[in-house]
Design a protein that fits this description.
Structural class: alpha+beta
Helix content: 40-55%
Strand content: 5-15%
Shape: globular
Largest sheet: 4 strands, antiparallel
Distance between the termini: 46 Å
Low-confidence stretches: 200-205, 214-298
Length: 298
Amino acid sequence: MAGRTTEDDPELAYRHARVARRLASRVGIVREAAGLAAYHAGEWAEALAELRAARRLMAGDDSYLPVMADCERGLGRPERALDLIKSAEAEGLDPMGRVELRIVESGVRRDLGQQDAAVVTLQIPELRDRRLRPWSARLFYAYADALAEAGREEEASDWFARAAAADRDGDTDAAERYAELEGLHILDTVEPEDEEQADEPVAESADDAAIADEIAEPAAPEGGEPAAVAFVPVEAEDAQAVEHVPGDATAIEFKPADPRAEDEGPSQEDGVPKAPAVFLEPTTEEAGDTPRPSTDES
């Protein structure tokens, strides 16, 4: 139950986990669940204690190190967080764990006022990976956030756009952050009443079918549907009055890497990470209306 309710109701999940802990306090998986539930509920001290206990009971499992370091950060102890990040145990983490640890370290550097160091911390090979990985959206978002905090808004905008395209489950607010930096307004093209009737079958006339064919979205590339986010520029005073016009919207597509380049090693020229081969390319909703602008892949 703690696992089922963590995302929607962290406090309820935490209460479930505490009951489980009372019933089976010497079972490692129970202490792990209690620690993670406490972490999501913002109970940093309790989460840290539970995860330490879980490590002892589960033969020194180090997979919790990123969460434990983040708890130290939440408790206002950045030096202790850095000690965990630089510990010998951290070197044995899997790729996902190492990326999460770097994201936490970047946050710690920002807490210490080291904005440039926070950016450099995330310039790791995974940032230039040519394939989408489970951590891509979070890593792109963290890098964009660090760039924005360092005052590098143009670069931050580009990486927020990449994060939005990679975040196919909508776990981050990358699209909103991108729109804010670019002065764009995100269009909600679904009316409330349409949402209620979305699952109801609707009879389609011949005219409806013809119109639908005209405005149909481009076919998705092999390997899955591209994540698209529609934006239109608006004046600040007219932001609430914008109406959706398909021809005005700009779609940002996430493009898969060239398979022939997948096995090439990461490039690192001048210490600045290259953009991953999966890149964002602005395109118009209706082909032929406007020339397709080129995108700098570097």
